[in-house]
Amino acid sequence: MSLPMRESVRVKRDTNKTSAEKGPEAASIKMNAEGLKAWFGSSLALKGVSLPIVDKQVTAIIGPSGCGKSTFVRCLNRMHEVVPGARAEGTVMLDGADIYGPGTDPVLVRRRVGMVFQKPNPFPTMSIRDNVLAGMKLNRVAVTDRDALVEQTLRQVALWDEVKDVLARSGTSLSGGQQQRLCIARALALEPEVLLMDEPCSALDPIATARIEELIHEIGKRVTIVIVTHNMQQAARVSDHTAFFYMGELVEYAPTDQLFTQPSNSRTEDYITGRFG
Amino acid sequence: MTPSREHTDREYEGELADVRARLMRMGTLCEDMIEQAMRALSERDTALARATYDKDDEVNRLEVSIDDLVLRILARRQPVASDLRFLASSLKLVTDLERIGDLVANICDRVVELDEEPPMRPYGSLQLMASATTGMVHDALAAFVARDAKRAKDLLERDRVVDDYYRQLFGELLAEMMADGKNVYRATRLQSIAKYLERIADHATNIAERVVFLVEGKDIRHPFSRVTGA
What we know:
The complex is a heterodimer. By secondary structure, chain A is α/β, with parallel strands linked by helices. Chain A has a single domain, classed as Rossmann fold (3-Layer(aba) Sandwich). In chain A, the strands form two sheets. Chain A has a six-stranded mixed beta sheet with strand order 6-7-8-3-9-10, sandwiched between helices. The N terminus of chain A is likely disordered. Chain B contains seven helices and no strands.
């Protein structure tokens, strides 16, 4: 079931054009948060956020520390509730069905909505190959040709040529940037429809960061991506849409080109130009 | 959207203030140069024309220093939103101001040439045209400093007044040349001065258009040359 179009998201990814040049082609909404509230114990971290996530495009979430951006993405695959005492309220539609609806299996949600974290976290006791297949094993997914899947997935993250001769080595033997690409490969092996990335480059050097950003451009053609970042230039570089969060609220959501040249809200202007606090 | 407060980083705030101050210095210099060049014309003051001509060097130096400063800020700060629009506008603005300086230097050249000839009858409309042009340069810069889009838009209409002065003067000087061939050398120089003033007013208009972009984020240049549906 597709959701009603909003004027502000009628932009389709086209890498040859800037957002302003893209035509008003209809973009479908993959996920849609409506009135999303989230708590840690009695502390309200998200105060009723409504935000669409456009299909096969990259949405960046920016905002100062503690604004609720990580909490928001963790609500998009029901990871938030894993924290003791944490709970969420509101709806998050995935292809028109509420992931918080009764009878929804969070494990299945997380298979469709994968996640990559700030710090690369390959399973230390597993080989590079087994790390790629880890999600399949945990989800008990039958794989007919494991070698083919490993190669195909590692090629997707541009890691194959670097590791094809050392697949039996531990995942932690790789550099930080390679480990993060391995983690992205692990998430992609399950063929998620949406990939959530929470500060995926904050522990990486500029070259490794550039590689991940290139990967985001590449993967973003096939998978819907939501990236949380402290790095505004990164949001400007990789995303089609940007949402600015402040104190648990969504302040502004706009095409990235527009938000970084002509934001409509003064708090967004102050934050992105460095006039905060 | 105009920023509601200063940058958290005071050094960055200071760098932007430095760009603004240098632009103002350059603009004030250009205004003074127009006024002095026209006084040199009316008073047949060759020394003043030469001294005014020499001021173009400072305008050129300011152009280079502002370009350099803005490029350093772009590289180091990666500005966005109103800061980005301000710095992008500044890069354009210095080019307009530098061209204004060059055009005033051209006026000074013509004044020196005219001072070697017997005087022609005074053309009051040329001084009126100069006054209107100086006013446009002044108001364009004031609108830039105050981020006043309305003042900038009002200015766009005033370019037509200067254009009308130019057409009127061109006709009058043509008539002088047709009446007596001995007037050709001097009348063509006065025509050139009128043309330089008309071009200066065009540069003031460019600055006004940049002010609208700076404040409202809207590019109002060439409204009839736009590709529609983009």
